[in-house]
Model the fold of this input.
Amino acid sequence: MKTLLRKNDVVLAIAGRSRGKQGKVLELQRNSGRAVVEGLQMIKRHTKKSQLHPQGAIVEKEGTIALSNLMLFCPTCQKGVRLGIKRDGGKRTRFCRKCKHEFDK
Ligand SMILES: [Zn+2]
Done:
């Protein structure tokens, strides 16, 4: 799965359960075409009983979200945007197609 997104990017969910929310990419799973995004697509997990939680506990954690449901969030446009790629010598710089904001400076 090809994606222009990278770890630590701030993305916006444009579809699915987390639609309209934004967060930071914690993990990219290129093989499955999904990502883990901070605060998005929360799922409830039941933990086993432990010393800390003798009764067990329900914790919320991030589930994965399809990359096709995510767009990079442009701080200038204040919305999810399409990306272009500029080659500058050997370096690839991603930019917002709307306002030309460069993300990789
Ligand atoms: Zn922009």
User: Anything to note?
Assistant: The CA atoms of residues 6 and 37 lie 11 Å apart. Residues 74, 76-77, 81, 96, 98-99, 101 surround zinc ion (CB under 6 Å).
